[in-house]
Amino acid sequence: MFRKIATLALGLGLLASPAAAQVDLGAGFSITGTATATSDYVFRNISQTRSRPAIQGALELSHESGFYIGTFASNVAFPNTNARQEVDAIGGFRHTIDSFSFDVGAVYYSYPGYTAQPGQYDIAFFETILKLKYELEPVTFVGTAAWSPDFFGSSGTGWWLETGLDVKLPILDITLSGRVGYQWIERNARFGAPDYFAYSIYATVPIALGFSAAVGFYGTNISEAECGGLKICDNRFIASVSWTF
Q1: What residues contact 116, with CB distance under 8 A and at least 6 apart?
Q2: What range does the record give for the signal peptide (predicted)?
């Protein structure tokens, strides 16, 4: 039974990219918040809500030195468990040198209210993440490396590598993005799925007053049989609307 929920790797897309809008608090500090409504919550292209909608919020306090702390929350829906929400603690440092920027951070993923049943494991875990970005207008090249000493479901060491690019189009300020990544897990049997390849392409368009919309296609090479008979690893289209302050 735990095999079905262990296919869910959880994450945070907001970690390394500061939002466009910020509220100046003085003394070099600023705060940024984002609220999102999305048709599905995926992490590394695996649904966290069993292909259902999610409401999410993120808050970040940053300093002009580059250090930041933050939090992220979302509803989740894991099969055969009482986990219904995810609340993450985030911290790190980011810096930009000319066209190059990096972000070194850490996330602790927690699931308040979750109680492990017989045959299940703790699903909370810790991950360190390095994100790199190089801007060459109108293209931005990005890369991500993430490591967990004990990944989701106590599945041992986990590694994630991803690369991609963002292209700013001259039409409506649309940004077209593409990503490819690969997830390694030490204990695949406990995790409930093999190491896998993930890919996505999506577009983001600013609207007004801090609102933006996005639509994209997300997929993995995990078959339904390898995904515990669930459709959470299937290819899917996702649409979302976000408001940032």
Answers
A1: 122, 123
A2: 1-21
The one-letter code for the residue type at 58 is: A
Does residue 191 carry a pLDDT above 70?
Answer: yes
* Cβ atoms of residues 29 and 63 within 8 Å: yes
Q: What is the mean pLDDT of residues 3-10?
A: 36
185 with 152: CB under 8 angstroms?
A: no
Nearest-angstrom CA–CA distance, 11 and 46: 10
Tell me the pTM.
Answer: 0.89
CA distance 228 to 83: 18
**In degrees rounded to 5, what are phi and psi of residue 215?**
-145, 140
Cis link prior to 138 (omega < 30° from 0)?
A: yes
Q: Which CATH class is domain 2-244?
A: mainly beta
Number of Cα atoms under 13 Å in the Cβ half of residue 153 = 24
Q: What is the chain's percent helix, strand, coil content, to nearest 5?
A: 5, 55, 40
**pLDDT 10s digits, 87-140:** 999 999 999 999 999 999 999 999 999 998 888 889 999 999 999 999 999 999
User: Can you list the alpha helix ranges (DSSP code H) found in 134-237?
Assistant: 188-191
What tokens does 193 get?
């799925």
| Interval 175-190: pLDDT, tens | 999 999 999 999 998 8
CA 54/CA 232 separation, integer angstroms = 14
